[in-house]
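Q: What does the predicted 3D structure of FGD4 protein look like?
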Amino acid sequence: PPFQNAELGKRAPRWIRDNEVTMCMKCKEPFNALTRRRHHCRACGHVVCWKCSDYKAHLEYDGNKLNKVCKDCYHVIIGCTDSEEKKKKGILEIESAEVSGNSVICSFLQYMEKSKPWQKAWCVIPKQEALVLYMYGAPQDVKALATIPLLGYAVDDTPRSADLPHSFKLTQSKSVHSFAADNEELKQKWLKVIHLAVKGETPECENELQVN
């Protein structure tokens, strides 16, 4: 479970693994060769970039030694609030872990747009927005790469020979989104939900559709 502010620094956090994120969990800057190394906040365990880890605070669980922490934890631990954090999150800023835990369906799918190469994406249809497909780079990312409002899309579930097996397409006028599942069973689970969503309906038995 996420850390309560009162517990920050009092016990060691669970470290989010480097490969669980593709961007800084604070400023959302993508990690690449230029943004240098990934750092861990010693208070909350989040993976952050060097800019967001440039703070130090005394942590109780580590004998009150000074440790590298992220900006948010620094403000909480030294007791000052950052009013900027209160700004409303944009639609893409919903954290993946938050929606995945309360979703109609979520899993990795291969995704292709226009003639770009296939790429792996963590795809989620949240319960509170069961007509929108959210796509993330990785399961712990704090910002979605894209959202697709499914209502009104046509579903084409017969792969062409050039496509990956177990693929399906969503088309609406000029926009075409191609997806591919790892197996036929997973593809059918997604199609079951998507066929309803494009008509503006939500599934009855959500729990059956959790895919880890």
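A (community wiki): The structure tokens above were generated from the sequence. The chain has two domains: 3-76, 94-197. The radius of gyration is 20 Å.
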